[in-house]
Amino acid sequence: QVQLVESGGGSVQTGGSLRLSCVFSDNIRSSACMGWFRQAPGKEREGIAAIDTGDGSTYYAYSVKGRFTISQDYAKNTVFLQMMDLKPEDSAMYYCAAAEWLTLLAHEYNTWGQGTQVTVSS
């Protein structure tokens, strides 16, 4: 049973943009929060953006605030991450996940996708 599927990753140059999508199954719709995380080789998984699926409140990590935007099309079971002004340090595997409250703490998320790779070259 596939629950979360990310797409939209790829390779871009510094300063470029990408838009990630995460389609989730109907059984995920009751989750109060959807979040985006990333993990680079040898580094811990980092929470970067989250959205309250009820009121649309958002929460960003300092490292991406002002450059990344999380949004949702709840009718289509989709959450997006628009990434602007990408930097080499943004290179990582990006994951979406579901949680019961608005947070960027990875251990609070109970359902994860398989990830989509983002590579930013200088």
Any overview of this molecule?
With 122 residues, the chain is mainly β. It has strands spanning 4-7, 10-13, 18-24, 33-39, 46-52, 58-60, 68-73, 78-83, 92-99, 109-112, 116-121.
Descriptive terms for the model:
mainly beta, 122 residues, four-stranded antiparallel beta sheet
Question: How does the SSE layout of this entry go?
Answer:
Layout: E1 4-7, E2 10-13, E3 18-24, E4 33-39, E5 46-52, E6 58-60, E7 68-73, E8 78-83, E9 92-99, E10 109-112, E11 116-121
String of helices and strands: EEEEEEEEEEE
Summed over residues and divided by their number, the pLDDT gives a mean of 95
Oligomeric grouping of the chains: single chain
Structural class: mainly beta
- Tell me, what's the shape? globular
Cα distance spanning the termini: 39 Å
Number of DSSP-assigned strands: 11
User: What are the segments in which pLDDT stays under 50 over at least 5 consecutive residues?
Assistant: none
Fraction of helical residues:
under 10%
What about the largest sheet? 7 strands, mixed
β-strand amount? over 45%
